[in-house]
Amino acid sequence: MLQPTRCIYSVRRQQNMPLHDRIVPYLERAGLYHLARLNARWFWLDEPLVSGFIERWRPETHTFHMPFGECTITLQDVAYQLRLSVDGLPVSRCFTDFEKFIVEGKPAWEWFQELFGELPPQNKVKHYTVHFTWFHERFRVLPDDATEETVRIYARAYIMMLLSTQLFGDKSENRVHIWWLPFVARLDDMGSYSWGSTALA
């Protein structure tokens, strides 16, 4: 097992998005609470070390070529260090014709509005992504008197940001993909998926 991998995973800083106490139970049930804690407050990213590993990465063999030999990130590393489930249902985000992949044939943005109570402005939308700042500004502060349904909406938003910016971030690092809608629509089922094996893949 590769020991120094704590700095290799593509864990992004989530721009100080507060972790409200009332959404923690949803993160725990989804198996993502530990990942939510890996941010600038609890996690220090050694960027020179990451750069060193990147220089030694060989994509043709999926290994790091180190002075002491070859090594790679294993499923055990992901399970141990990120504490993500490696058992369970497969996570698939490769939906063909995503807009039609909706319960009862509902358009994706209509489903988005049902789950979050509103749509982002058009200048924050690009294809099937929403700019991180909209989520950050809209869901940063959970009202003290929030109903349980409002808490669920905030939990969905936090998980969407967590998946898009920390676990499965792309080069932009500032877009939240709506292909996670089928997962956050069923918050109570999220813990049944193998997030660890998907992150490793």
Automatic annotation (TrEMBL):
Q: Which Pfam families match?
A: PMD
Report the residue ranges that make up the Aminotransferase-like plant mobile domain in this protein.
31-201
Name the InterPro entries for this protein. AminoTfrase-like_pln_mobile (IPR019557), MAIN-like (IPR044824)
Gene Ontology annotations of biological process type = meristem maintenance
Q: What is this protein called?
A: Aminotransferase-like plant mobile domain-containing protein
- Organism of derivation: Arachis hypogaea
